[in-house]
Amino acid sequence: MSIETNEQLAALEAIGRIVGRTLREMGSQVRPGVSTAELDAIGAKLLSAEGARSAPPLVYGFPGAVCISVNDEIVHGVPGPRLIAPGDLVKLDLTAEKDGYMADAAVTVAVPPASEAALRLAACAEHAFDRAMREARARHRVSDIGAAVERQVRRDGFSVVRELCGHGIGRTIHEEPQIPNYWDPRQRTRLTEGLVITVEPIIAAGSGSAYLSSDRWTMKTADRSLSAHFEHTIVITRDAPILLTAA
Prior knowledge:
The chain is an alpha+beta fold.
């Protein structure tokens, strides 16, 4: 969506803060012996206390409040009995709704004693996001964001998962435009002031090829390599973007 009123911005800022706080608290609870179902319950309880709801069950019928993906699971992992183990790389991806507006963010949590490679991969996803923020400005092209992400990821020796990308958001989870994490010369759409999008580097330590697992939700790396994910919902301005979910 594109913000047209102060009331819309205030509503998006409100749900953005809720998503940011919820992810931060969930991240603090990621530790060995905790199940992904228990983490999901924590997220659902925190959202309910804020008067918000998880969006994926509303829009897509997803069987959980939070997408929780571990190690070679890239995105859309279904919460369940799996126990977090030492060294795991855990992705928490939360989209929530309140008063008709939605925001989306993701973090990657490295469980001690995570390997040096896992730590580098998680850091790369965040660094790629930071690079993308330099291009996320009105009149720049959507493809400028993807080019910035891809340059950083390749520089660090990793791969972009090309099947997955950022997107417009606001009234529902996935709106136009799509925001690829790689340079696409055919993508000539320009960013406009007030546009609400997610920027979310989704990367892998291996080739970056992905497949849909048998549960029909979870995306995994084809070569079973580790993956990492970092995301915020932002508002495009003429200058630095507004990070709605960074609260």
